[in-house]
Design goal:
Order of helices and strands: EEEEHHEEHEEEEEEHHEEHEE
Shape: elongated
Number of domains: 2
Largest sheet: 6 strands, mixed
Helix content: 25-40%
Number of helices: 6
Oligomer: single chain
Strand content: 25-35%
Number of strands: 16
Distance between the termini: 59 Å
Radius of gyration: 26 Å
Strand order of the largest sheet: 11-1-2-3-7-12
């Protein structure tokens, strides 16, 4: 297949029997199903980082236990998520074995992300075919197809728009941060994002009571009593107090994150906020315990080098 992006970067459909790779300065790769395992699941979560927490459980029993898998998650429709399990190390080794330099490796994508490309069968070397079957991109042995089976014209150049790609490792010059930094930043961004959502919700709730009260007063004159209005406002003051607590607690927890610690789980409920923090060594664990005491946070050891930190309203 001859694929390019709008900025004219070369795109390669990657499969195990590929013979030669282009000698381009930079290439992106669409992985054939040989290189990944795919699942589509319905989960009642809003964000990809939340869905990703379920990935290892969803793939339980489907993957090789001795391999180090990474997971990529894409939201499709309401509560519909696509999960991809892949092995970055194996894919990178394969690419480097084809005489590519690390600097030539751009992002990777998954064939399942682009089912329309495979409405017609596309040959993968001399053994397999890749095709969209009822919405799932899969490989089919070439030998089982009819003699007169029609294939996609591979001479045509097709321009596509790529999105939701991933970097294999830090070997790509496109990757600004190291893997360790990415883990730390992901934890920080998750907390900061949660703070932003809480603040937004809180600000919205600050305006909502007055507007709601005015509407009710207009529709029901008996609500104009100051006593009745005060009772209504007390209800919203409770909500405001809870949201302020969530915001302040997540800010305190974010101060505990460093190069030697990261958050593996964040649990925010109506009147409590708790995070699970992994640390590198005992010294960092003691530092977090001391800082938690200063911030008036509860801290409980879960296991060696793992702490539960948070507070209740």
């Amino acid at each position: 297949m001859n694929l390019i992006t709008k900025n004219r970067r070369t795109i390669v459909l990657l499969y195990p029997d590929i013979a030669v790779l282009p000698n381009a300065v930079k290439m992106d790769f669409i992985l054939a199903p040989h290189f990944y395992t795919y699942l589509k699941e319905e989960l009642a979560v809003k964000y990809a980082f939340q869905a990703k927490q379920f990935a290892s459980s969803l793939f339980d029993g489907l993957l090789q236990k001795e391999k180090n898998y990474s997971y990529h998650v894409i939201k499709k429709d309401e509560n519909q998520w696509e999960f991809y399990a892949y092995i970055p190390e194996d894919i990178e080794k394969f690419l480097l074995s084809k005489n590519l330099k690390s600097s030539q490796i751009g992002k990777i994508y998954f064939a399942q992300q682009y089912p329309r490309l495979f409405e017609e069968s596309v040959k993968l070397g001399i053994k397999d075919v890749i095709k969209n079957l009822n919405g799932v991109v899969t490989t089919i042995p070439l030998r089982i197809l009819p003699f007169d089976h029609k294939f996609k014209n591979e001479e045509n150049v097709e321009q596509i728009e790529l999105k939701d790609g991933v970097h294999l490792t830090t070997s790509s010059v496109d990757a600004i941060f190291s893997f360790k930094d990415s883990v730390i930043l992901s934890s920080l961004f998750a907390i900061l994002g949660m703070i932003f959502l809480i603040q937004s919700f809180m600000i919205g709730n600050l305006d909502e009571p007055q507007a709601t009260l005015q509407k009710l007063t207009d529709e029901h004159p008996n609500l104009s009593s100051q006593i009745v209005r005060d009772n209504i406002m007390q209800k919203y003051e409770k909500i405001d107090k809870e949201e302020r607590f969530k915001r302040d607690t997540t800010q305190k927890i974010s101060k505990l994150i460093s190069n030697d610690s990261n958050i593996s789980d964040l649990n925010i409920r109506e009147n409590q906020v708790y995070a699970t923090i992994n640390v590198k060594n005992q010294m960092i664990e003691n530092q977090i315990k001391n800082q938690s005491e200063i911030e008036k946070l509860e801290v409980t050891p879960i296991s060696p080098l793992k702490l539960k930190v948070g507070a209740k309203l």
